[in-house]
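Hey, can you fold this one?
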Amino acid sequence: MQISIPSETGHLRKVIVHTPGREVSLVNPELKNELLFDDIIFEEDARQEHLDMLKIFKAAMPADGEIFEILDLAREALQDKSVRQNFVEQMVRELTYENLEVVEEELKNLDANKLLRFVIEGTIGPDHPFSLHPTPNILFTRDLAAVVGNRVILSKAAKRARARESLLMELILKNHPVFSSVRDNIIHIGGQQSVEGGDVLVVSDKIVLIGMSERTSFSGLMNVATQLLAGEVEHVVAVDIPKKRSSMHLDTIFTFADENECIVFPPAIEDQTDNVVELYKENGTIQLRQHQSLKGTLETLTGNPFTFIRCGGEDRTTQFREQWTDGANVFALAPGVIVGYERNTSTFNAMKEHGYKVISQFDFIEEYSNKEFDPATAGKLAIMFQGHELCRGRGGARCMTQPILRN
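Sure. Predicted structure:
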């Protein structure tokens, strides 16, 4: 199957997601910070909100579009017993702090479903004394990998709470036929380096942004940049962002709505200067060039003017409030067609002022569920969807999606 992401906004054709399951109900409030959650979420409502979001995707995608559940891909990859045994051995080897060697043989004898349950929920069986913390963050499939052109960056999580997810993504990339065409194009992260997919944004086939955040290390960024620049990418733009929980990835403060239009959190993007470094190759060596602002960098490299639409509008307090609820973390289904949480009303009003038609998820689905959606004739759309429970997990529409094919 073809795997290709030439930009952030090309018409979406194939995407990997995870609809919340029992793992989110296993988050003990006393452990929520360790598990990277700011709050506990109600599984049933979060699940329905996520399924409703996927209805938007299905209505907007072409007839041959596909939505993959990451656990379905993992389950299919784990059908082979040798793959299961190798995966268990890798967990034992890399997750030394979990003491998995005491149950290694038991894990190797589990079938695909039970082994997957152990990875996600942390339990071998209802009465088994050995258990791990759940992995509720698998909801945010974006962070596990990033497709850039026809190459795949295999993320390496910065936090232990997400380490099993990274191994699960590696399992899928190496063993599932969906990724057979790009198996030789995987960029690996080594040692103590970390890179997460929320920090990687594809401007074009020649330009990639990477945030240096609390989750993506300098050495990890340089590793990825070096490998990208050895291929078709000509410019990697490193963006130094605040090392805060509220801005854990670049896409929590900056996303693309159209080819030259972006949703930005002003205090962390517009108000910052001299925090952008362009990496490019010249005469076989990587060169660095510092830029004053992200907007200026994009305009210089693309030759086009850019419009930055402010998350939260013009009011400072509202900007902070709506960034906190992922107002800047929108997901483009096609050029000029985005989805985001409806609660961020000031952000949607700002988009309306920039020519977007604001529409509810229900109206969009009703209009396009029985006819093909054509982005070229639909005009600029900002689709609001309900996510009152999903929002508690601190991730928006982009965080919850891993596109693997766009036009």
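The first helix runs from residue 22 to 25. Let me know if you want another pass with a different chain boundary.
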